[in-house]
Design brief:
With 316 residues, the protein is mainly alpha-helical. The protein has helices at 2-16, 18-26, 38-56, 62-89, 97-105, 115-122, 129-153, 161-165, 168-181, 193-205, 207-219, 224-228, 231-252, 259-270, 275-284, 288-310. The protein is 73% helix and 0% strand. It starts with a helix and ends in a 6-residue tail after the last helix.
Length: 316
């Protein structure tokens, strides 16, 4: 029951963030297409600072460093494999943007914007929880800037080492790790440290509201039929909310890692479809409505699915 209430509150707040976007479009102050202007802000500003914010909450330790490496490699491999497997399954329908978007949405979860508050609520004593969410977000961004953009557009220009190494997520992670390994805290900088860290925190926490506002803006141009009555929507939800986390749980169950890390890795694969998948769609200019539909349906149904998955924790 506690898990249900935690998820209900956090998902409810996330959905409320979409209301300003809906109102701005309904009152004709903005158009639905204006949502694409938010995408660069999220990718180039908010997301990198969210990574920096998460790591600044940690003090260096060998054990935590090993756990982060495990989480990064595990998240990268599982998300990559899921995306490729779904892309292969949908190979005969690749000409249909709905199925290309679905292949990405099956693997991309809202690890940071919704994952952080859920992990912090379910595991309040696990100080590394937020950092693990950022680690997963970085892994997802690496796949997003390359493979996901290629799958959505079918343009091979997105597959390059340069895009893997020189994207905001990777650069932010490198900076955050340098500060983490040397145990350097931004707030300790004389005079300017605390105001600067406050600025980073505020912008980092803008990620969820901005993302959901963009989703709300796109929602105004869509019908409820497109969101809830297309079968592809439930294929995405079945894979993202059940198949993916159940497979991950079966793997981590046997790994010699802390129980908190096992729980975190399982929950992070069960969170709703990431709004950042919409952000990538906005960036490349294809599949925006389908990513919005997947995100919204997935977020609403996560009120039920995440508590169900969390019942697995009694086995740990």
């Amino acid at each position: 029951m506690d898990n249900f209430i935690t998820v209900l509150i956090n998902v409810g707040i996330m959905l409320l963030y979409a209301v300003p976007g809906i109102l701005l479009v309904k009152t004709k102050i903005l158009k639905s297409d204006n949502a694409k202007t938010i995408a660069p802000i999220l990718l180039y500003v908010c997301s990198p600072l969210l990574t920096l914010y998460s790591f600044q909450k940690l003090s260096f330790s060998k054990e935590t460093s090993i756990d982060m490496l495990i989480a990064f490699l595990f998240g990268l491999v599982t998300m990559l494999c899921t995306t490729l497997i779904m892309y292969f399954i949908f190979r005969k329908k690749r000409s249909d943007i709905r199925y290309r978007v679905a292949a990405v949405c099956c693997a991309f979860g809202n690890e940071a914007f919704l994952g952080v508050p859920i992990i912090e609520a379910l595991l309040p004593s696990y100080s590394a929880g937020a950092a693990m969410c950022s680690i997963y977000l970085t892994a997802m961004n690496i796949i997003g800037w390359t493979l996901a953009c290629y799958i959505i557009t079918q343009d091979k220009k997105y597959i390059s080492i340069k895009r893997i190494l020189l994207n905001p997520a990777t650069i932010a992670l490198v900076v955050a790790l340098i500060l983490y390994f040397f145990d350097l805290k931004i707030e300790t900088i004389p005079t300017a440290g605390i105001p600067f860290m406050n600025c980073i925190t505020i912008i980092a926490k803008m990620s969820a509201p901005l993302c959901m506002m963009a989703l709300g803006m796109r929602l105004c141009s869509m019908s409820m039929k497109k969101i809830f009555l297309e079968p592809i929507r439930y294929i995405v939800i079945a894979i993202k909310h059940f198949a993916f986390p159940l497979i991950v749980f079966a793997i981590v169950f046997f790994l010699p890692i802390p129980v908190e890390l096992k729980m975190t890795m399982t929950i992070l694969t069960a969170v709703p479809v990431a709004q950042i998948s919409q952000t990538f769609a906005e960036l490349v200019g294809q599949g925006q409505e389908d990513t919005v539909a997947n995100c919204l349906a997935s977020t609403i149904l996560s009120i039920i699915t995440i508590p169900i998955i969390s019942l697995l924790f009694v086995l740990l």
